Amino acid sequence: MKKIQPAKTLQNVINSAIYHLNLRDHSISELKTKLEAKTDNQEWVDTVIAQMKGYGYLKEDLPFAIHFCETSYANEYGKRYMIEKLKQKGISETDITEALERVSHQQQRSEYNLVVERLSRIEDFSHTTKEKVFNTLLKRGFSLNDITHAIAEHPAGNTLLEKAVIKGQNANLRNEIIKLAKKLKGAALIRRELSMKHIDVSEFD
Asked: What is the pLDDT of residues 139-168, one digit of tens each?
C-alpha cells in the first residue's frame, strides 16, 4: 500500500480532498476520514470540508444518499445493497430511510422486476449453478423471496440446478459403486449413498 504523505500545509489538505473527489463521489464521513489520515490538524480538516461543500464538490448526507440510491437502482441493485453501502459511508439511518423512500417513489420498476429483468438475459442455466445465481443476486441486495419467485417464473427455471445435483448427474455410476464397495458397504447402503449424491440409481443392480 502506498504510504500516505503527511500534509505540511492547508493547501496539501485541499489538494488531497480534490484528488479524492475527482476519483469518485465521497460522503462527508468518507472524505473526513481520508483527510484525517493526512493530517491531525482538525481545523484544517474542518476548513477543507466546509470549502468542498461551498464549491459544490461535496454533498450533504441526504443529497449524497439520494444520488447513490438513484445510481444503484439504475445499475440494478437492491435496497439491501444500498443500505449496507450507505452505512459503510457513514450515512445515518434517518437519511438512508428518507433517501430510499424518495427514490422508491420515482422508480417505475419494483425490485422483483429488476431481478426478473436480470434473469431474462439468461436463456438457460446449464452453464451455472443455483448457488452461484442466488449468491450473485443476494450480493446485489435482492431478497431471497424475490429471487426464488423470479427463478420459479423463468421459462428455463427448471434447468437451474444445485452444484451437488450437477455433480451427481455427471458422475460415473460404475466408478462410484466401486469406490463405495471398496469401503465394504453393502448394496442397500451403496444405493442410499448414491441417491444422497443425486446419482441416478435406476441402472443399479
From this structure: 999 999 999 999 999 999 998 988 877 776
69 contacts 103 by C-beta, under 8 angstroms: yes
In the chain, the number of structural domains is 4
- Is the Cα torsion angle 50, 53, 58, 60 positive or negative in sign? positive
Q: What is the pLDDT of residues 39-82, one digit of tens each?
A: 999 999 999 999 999 999 999 999 999 999 999 999 999 999 99
Whether residue 3 is contained in a domain is answered as: no
Terminal Cα-to-Cα distance of the chain (whole angstroms): 62
Q: Is residue 133 located within the same domain as residue 96?
A: no
For residues 118 and 155, state if they share a domain: yes
Domain interval for residue 39? 10-55
The alpha-helical segments, DSSP class H, found in the chain are 10-23, 28-38, 42-55, 61-74, 79-88, 93-106, 111-120, 130-139, 144-153, 163-170, 173-182, 187-196
**Residue 178 is which amino acid?**
I
